[in-house]
Write a structure and sequence with these properties.
Layout: E1 2-3, E2 8-9, H1 21-28, H2 34-45, H3 47-51, H4 53-57, E3 59-65, E4 68-73, H5 76-97, E5 104-109, H6 131-141, H7 147-160
Helix pairs in contact: 6-7
Length: about 160
């Protein structure tokens, strides 16, 4: 690759898999106290990816202390299920967050905040938009002349409110 400003060739090989910014920050700041907080946040944010959708609805990580992750679960059945899945969860976390970031997960029965029960499949749980939301949807789509496209834009906006 040629550097047009300096007329030099880049000696750095192109990466097949570019590094993600969070991985780069974690690897470069490993000795800083903030690293545990960053890892804690990253694990909480991506818990569904690590534990799976069903398990993440019934559990949540509460604290990362060193290399030990504490998680609350809603019942002993889910605690048992997650205990069986622990090796795979650890593997996913360490692959995404950093080698040996988490070595142990402790599951305990406790409150799982912010989790809403999943609606039964096939049921429509859309709320009715307010008059102000309907007016805004109409306003946003009003500049489009094509009826089909205008309705699609209006409906997309209203679905985004759900």
């Amino acid at each position: 690759m040629r550097n047009l400003h300096l007329g030099l060739r880049s000696s750095r090989p192109r990466l097949k898999d570019p590094l993600k910014l969070d991985a780069l920050l974690l690897s470069s700041c490993a000795s800083l106290p903030m690293t545990t907080l960053i890892r804690d946040y990253a694990i909480k944010k991506r818990w569904a990816q690590f534990a799976g959708d069903a398990a993440s609805a019934k559990s949540e990580p509460t604290r990362l202390s060193g290399t030990t992750l504490s998680c609350n679960v809603t019942s002993s059945a889910w605690m048992s299920e997650l205990s069986y899945a622990k090796p795979e969860i650890l593997k996913k976390i360490n692959k995404a967050i950093g080698e040996k970031a988490v070595l142990e997960i402790i599951f305990k029965i406790g409150e799982v905040k912010g989790k809403k029960p999943s609606p039964p499949p096939g049921l429509n749980h859309r709320r009715t938009p307010t008059n102000a939301e309907l007016e805004k949807a109409i306003s946003i789509s009003s500049g489009v002349k094509d009826d089909i496209l205008r309705n699609a834009i209006k409906n997309a906006f209203l679905r985004s409110l759900q």
